[in-house]
Amino acid sequence: MWIGVVSLFPDMFDALTQQGVVGRAVEKQRIALEFWNPRDYATDRHRSVDDRPYGGGPGMLMKVDTLRAAIFAARERAQQATGLVPTVIYLSPQGRKLDQQGVQALASAGPLVVVAGRYEGIDERVVESDIDEEWSIGDYVLSGGELPAMVLIDAAARLIPGVLGHQDSAVEDSFNDGLLDCPHYTRPEIIDGRQVPDVLLSGNHAAIKRWRLKQSLGRTWQRRPDLLEGRPLDAEQRKLLNE
Ligand code: SAM
After folding, report:
1. Global confidence as pTM
2. Predicted ipTM?
3. Which of 1, 174, 186, 243 has the most CB within a 10 Å radius?
4. What φ, ψ does residue 206 adopt, rounded to 5°?
5. CA end-to-end span of the chain
6. CA angle, 181 as apex, 91 and 32 as ends, to 5°?
C-alpha cells in the first residue's frame, strides 16, 4: 500500500513509522509512506504557510499555493510509484465518520494521499477541486490532522495482508465481523480470586469457539446494540444469544 502524507509536521509521524505494527510494515515494505511539507514550497522570506481568512475573524487558514503544490507533488508521485491515480483524503471534523467499514474500503482503495489540515483548516475551493473524500475520526476538534491521519493509517495498515503476524490477526478483532471482540485472559489462572473461565482451560476447541462467539454477541448486545441493528443473526448465533 502506498500512502503520501501532506503535513506541516511530518516528524510527528515518527511515532507511527518507527515502532510497532506500522513500523514493521514499513520495514517489510508492505507500506510505503512518503511525506510532502507545504513549507518546502514557500517562496517568501518567512516561508509562510498560513493566510488570513476573507471576512475576518479569528484564526488563519492554510496558505493555498503551498498546500496545493504539496498535494499536486504527492499526487504525481503516487502515479509514478504505483501507476494508479490516488484517492486524495482530507482529514476533517466535517468528514464522514471513520469506522471499520470505512477503514476496510480505504485499505483496499489503492494509493492514498492524506492531507492533514492545520489552523482553521483549508480553503473550501481546495476541498472542492483537489480533495476526493473527507474523513473525520470523531465529533471533537483537534489542533491538526496529523493524529487523525495516523489513526487512519494505523487502522488501514492492520488490514494489509502480511502486516500482522498470525498471533495478532485482525480477523478476530472488534468490528471485523460487525461484533465486539470477546474477553481475553492470560496467566495467572487466578487474579484476586477471579478465575479464568473453565471452558478456556478445557482444551475443547469447539466449546471455546462457541463460548467466544456467545461472549461477543452478549457484549455487543449489552454495550453496542446499534451494531446489531439491521444485522441478521444466523441460526447458531440466535440460539447462543437465547441460551
Ligand atoms: N475549523 C475547523 C472546523 O471547525 O471544522 C477545525 C479546524 S482544526 C482546528 C485543524 C485541522 O485539524 C483540520 O483542518 C483537520 O485537518 C484536523 N482535525 C481536527 N479535528 C479533526 C477530526 N475530528 N477528524 C479529522 N481531522 C480533524
Report:
1. 0.95
2. 0.99
3. 1
4. -65, -40
5. 44
6. 40
pLDDT digits (tens, 9 = 90+) for 171-207: 889 998 899 999 999 999 999 999 999 999 999 999 9
Digit-coded pLDDT (tens) for 44-62:
999 999 999 999 999 999 9
The residue nearest atom 24 of ligand 1, judged by CA position, is 136
Most informative mutation of 141, 151, 152 for ligand 1 (most atoms within 8 A of CB): 141
The domains found in the chain, sorted by start residue, are 2-157 (3.40.1280.10), 174-242 (1.10.1270.20)
149 residue type, one letter:
A
- How many whole angstroms from 117 Cα to the centroid of ligand 1? 7
Can you say how many angstroms the Cα of residue 190 is from the centroid of all Cα atoms in its chain? 36
Q: Return the SS3 of 24.
A: helix
Span 139-164, pLDDT tens digits: 999 999 999 999 999 999 999 998 98
Ligand 1: residue whose CA is nearest its atom 27: 92
Which residue, chain included where needed, has cell 495478532?
Answer: 168
pLDDT at 99: 97
